[in-house]
Amino acid sequence: QVQLVESGGGLVQAGGSLRLSCAASGDTFSRFAMGWFRQAPGKEREFVGTISAMGGVTYYADSVKGRFTISRDNAKQMVSLQMNSLKPEDTAIYYCAARTDRTARTSVQYEYWGQGTQVTVSS
Q1: Which of 58, 59, 77, 79 fits 29 for a cystine, CB–CB 3.0-4.6 Å?
Q2: Helix and strand numbers, DSSP H then E, in the chain
């Protein structure tokens, strides 16, 4: 088992940047691939990006590719989402998630979830 807590959300103007963090505790962090997802009001939860257990492989949704970067520090049991060139359509609750072993790009493949942090991008 692993517990996840997101932080770093807030209000930012279009074109700005935010860095979200997800702190993990419990089981060995390096066992887990980590994912970021987001959910806007009235919409389904969507994949943002994922990073492999040792940080060597990343995948991103087309909508954020080139703007968002996932990184992790296994010694600190932390995964981050650096968001640049933010757009109003990036407004959502952002969740980090964990799954054993390999990366995945659908929410049903993730075992553990944080409670989310709100990101609001104004025009």
Answers
A1: 77
A2: 0, 11
